[in-house]
Design brief:
Rossmann fold; 40% helix; 20% strand; globular; 7-stranded mixed β-sheet; alpha/beta
């Protein structure tokens, strides 16, 4: 049995405190949050949390990432976080299916001065990943897309991930429904199965972090 949890439940006030005591949001990030809420409405919740973006920027810098891949870009907050952590010459490949939402992303990247580091490919991400050259090596990957395809994204990325490279998988707590047996929709079932498979995969070391809606951090051995 695990020890009693030491994590605290984030109230809105505590979350505000948490964000205020990390790297501050800048004007571009504030604009992007506002623009996403205005244009996406109920879908704005798909945007990553500010503390998640700060974590991703720090991790990108710590790993010395030269080549990153993102599956699921939406309005570009996560890509902005990674791109800002890249060194000169670093590159980020973004995979998404929506011209509408990624148009917001493109504007944010231009405003932030990182558009030259990012390549965006519109189309099914599995097809994009499978089309990459065999010698395409990934230092960092972030997956935040349709949950039923998580295993396919994982397999395609893991074989290209360098040893000690890292993959981040978003929404792996899925609003807490991963432990609620009464919830049996396709996405929830897919995340449960994916979490079980990754935890049993002896090719990787993994930790499920209680950041935002759950971020699984996977290191290739």
């Amino acid at each position: 049995m695990a020890d009693p949890p030491k994590s605290v439940v984030l109230t809105p006030e505590l979350h505000e405190y948490l964000v205020e005591h990390g790297t501050p949001l800048d004007d571009v990030q504030r604009w992007l949050i506002s623009e996403t809420k205005a244009k996406a409405g109920d879908f704005a919740g798909m945007q990553i949390a500010p503390e998640q973006g700060a974590f991703m920027t720090v991790l990108t810098r710590l790993l010395g990432v030269r080549q990153a891949v993102e599956v699921g870009t939406f309005t570009g907050a996560s890509a902005l976080a990674v791109a800002r952590g890249l060194p000169p010459g670093g590159r980020l490949l973004c995979c998404d299916v929506s011209e509408e939402w990624t148009a917001v992303a493109r504007e944010a990247w231009q405003r932030a001065g990182v558009a030259d580091r990012i390549e965006l490919r519109i189309g099914p991400a599995v097809d994009t990943l499978r089309s990459l050259p065999e010698d395409f090596v990934v230092d960092l990957a972030f997956v935040d897309a349709d949950k039923t395809n998580y295993p396919a994204y994982y397999d395609e990325l893991l074989r290209r991930l360098r040893p000690n490279g890292v993959m981040l998988i978003d929404n792996t707590l899925w609003h807490g429904t991963v432990i609620d047996a009464s919830v049996q929709d396709d996405s929830t079932r897919a995340i449960r199965a994916f979490n079980d498979a990754v935890a049993a995969d002896d090719r990787v070391d993994t930790v499920l972090l209680p950041i935002s809606d759950g971020v699984t951090m996977i290191r290739k051995r």
